[in-house]
Design goal:
- The structure holds 2 protein chains of 2 kinds.
- Helix content of chain A is 75%, strand content 0%.
- Chain A has 7 helices and no strands.
- In chain A, helix 1 runs antiparallel to helix 2 and helix 2 packs antiparallel against helix 3.
- Chain A starts with a helix and ends with a helix.
- By secondary structure, chain B is mainly α.
- Helices cover 75% and strands 0% of the residues of chain B.
- In chain B, helix 2 runs antiparallel to helix 3.
- Chain B is elongated, with a radius of gyration of 17 Å.
- Chain B starts with 5 loop residues before the first helix and ends in a 15-residue tail after the last helix.
- Classes of the chains: A mainly alpha, B mainly alpha.
- Chains A and B meet through helix 1, helix 2, helix 3, helix 4 and helix 5 of A and helix 1, helix 2 and helix 3 of B.
Chain lengths: 183, 102
Amino acid sequence: MILAADAGNVLVWVVWVVAACACLGSGIAVISFSNPFFSALSLIGNLASLAVLYLLLSAEFVAAAQVLVYAGAVMVMFLFVIAYLGGRADAPWAGGPSWQAFAAGAASGALLVEVLVVISLKSSGRLTHEANIDSSFGSPARIGRLFLTDHLLAFEITSIVLLVAAVGGVILGSHSRNPSVDR
Amino acid sequence: MNGPNVVWYLAVATFLFCTGALGVLIRRSPLIVLLSLEIMLNGANLALIAFARQQGHEDGQIFALAVMAVAASEVVVGLGLIVAMARRRLDLDVDKLRTLRG
C-alpha cells in the first residue's frame, strides 16, 4: 500500500518535472526564435504543457478551456495573421547587443530574483499547507455553478468585454480601399 | 497532495512571467511582443490556479478563466492593430512607431 502510494507520488513528480521543463523551455523558445511562425508553434507547446500542470492542480475545466481557447482558437488566429503578413524574420540580437537589451535583461532578472526570494521566504509557513479537496474540485459542474451563482457579475462583464473586443476587431479590420483616405 | 506543493508551481509561474517580460522588452516585432504577453498572462494564470488548489476554493480558477477571456480579446485587438499597420505599409517594428511620442 505504501509502495503504491510512493509510486504514485514519484509518477506525479515525474510528470510535473517534464511538464515544467517543457513549459520553461518552450517559453524561452518563443522569445528567442527569429521567425514568428516558430515562436507561435512553441507557444502552442507552452500552452499544452501548462494544461498538464493545470490537470496536476486538479483544475480540469480550466485545462480543457486552455487547450480549446488558447491552443485552438487564439493560436489559429495568430498563425493566420503570421501567414497573412508573410515571414518577416526579426532577429532578436540583430545589430549587436544594445544597452536597452542589457537593461531589459537586468530588469526582468531583478523581477525574477525578487519574486523568487519572496516565495522562498514565505515557503515554510502557510504555503506548504494544502487544503483537502474532494474529487469534484475543478469539475465543469462546480465551475459552472460558481459562474452562475457567486460570480455572475464577473461572467456578464466577461461577455461584454468579449463583445467589445469583437466590435473593435471588426472596426480595426475594416478600412477604406482608397489609399488617399487611408493614409 | 501527492507531488510538488504550491511553491514549486509558483516558481514555474515566476519564471514564465519573467520570460514573457523579457520578450516584451527586447523583441521588436509586435507579433512576438503579443506572444510574450500571452506567456506573462499564462504565468499569472498558473499562480492563480496553484493558489486555488492550495486554498481549496475554485475562485482562483474562475479568475483564471476571466483572464483567459481578457487575453483572447486582447489578442483580437492587438492582431487587428498589427494587420492595420501592415496594410498601411508601416514597418512592423515597435521601435519605429513614434508618432505618438511627444
